[in-house]
Amino acid sequence: MIKTFLKKIFIFLIPLLVVWICIEIFYRFVPNNYTQKATEIQNNYDSKILVLGNSHAFYGINPDYFNAKTYNFSNISQSLYFDELLIEKHLKSFKNLKYIILTVDYFSLSQVDNSSEDIYRKYYYEQYMDINVPLISRFDPKSYSLTLTRNLEMNIDLMKSYSKEKTLVEGNSKGWAMKIGTNPQFNNYETAVDVVAKNEDGLSDFQVNLDRLNRIIKLCSKQNVKVLLVTMPVTTHYARLVNQNKLRKIYTDCKRIASEQKNCIYLNLFQNKNFQNDDFYDTDHLNEKGAEKCSKILNKVIIENSGFNSLQKIENVR
C-alpha cells in the first residue's frame, strides 16, 4: 500500500517537476533587462556619465543627447538600495567617470528596504547582476530557483509576454528604454489617482535613504566623481495629487545634502515648466520627446557647470 501511495505521489509530481524545469530554463536562458545591463555595463566602463535610478530615469534619460559618453544603468523600480549596491560593485571599474546622475523622486526617500517591489526583483539583482544582496538569506530557496520568486500565474504571463514580443529586453545598448507618444488611457487624472496612491507610502522618515545618499556621494567623492541628484518631471495630473508637505521635505533634504557635499548638486524638475503633459507616455513616465527634452537639460547643466562650483545653487531649470 505504501509503495502504491508513493507511486501515485511520484506520478502526481512529474508534471509539476516538468513545469518547474521549463520555467527555470526560461528564467536562466532568456535575456531580460537585468542580464542586458549586467553585460552592457562592462562594455561601457569608459563612460564619463552614468545614470542610475528607477523607471523615470530608465525611460526619461536618453544617453544620445549627452556630449560625453553616457550609459543608463537605471531599471524599473530600482530603489536607492540597489543603486548603492550597483555603485559599490562597479564604480572602481570606471576610469573616466565624471558624473553620476541619480534620480530622487517622490517615493525614493521614503521607500523601505524589501518593499513589495523588491519581493522578486532582489533575486534578479543577485542572480542576473551578480550582486550580493544582504536582504536575501543564504537559506532562502528562492535564491536558488527563480521559478519560486513569482507565482505560477505571473510566470505564465511573463512567458506569454515573451512569446508575443519575442523579447523581455526593453533597453538599447546604451541602457535607455523608449516610450513612444502619449497613451490617453494612462496619461489622465483618473490614472494619476491610482498611481499616486500606489506610490504614497505615508512615510515621512527619510533618514535611512538620506544616509544611503550620503554614502553614495562620499563614495563617489573618493573616486573624484560628481553626483547630480535630480527629481524627474511628472504630469500636472500627478503633481497636483501628491502630499505637498512631503514634497517640500524632499526638496529641503536634497538641497541640504547638496549644500553639505561639495561634489553634489540637486536639480528639481518635478513641476518644471519646460514639460507639458504630451511629453509623457503616461502620468509619470516621459515619452521619447520628453526624454530628449529632459536629457538635453541635464546635459546643458553638466556642460555649463563643468567646474561644479556654482551648481549647488541650482534648484530649477527654467
Automatic annotation (TrEMBL):
Coiled coil: none annotated. It comes from the Bacteria. This is D-alanyl-lipoteichoic acid biosynthesis protein DltD. SUPFAM superfamilies: SGNH hydrolase. Keywords: Membrane, Transmembrane, Transmembrane helix. The lineage of its organism: Bacteria, Pseudomonadati, Bacteroidota, Flavobacteriia, Flavobacteriales. The chain crosses the membrane at residues 9-30.
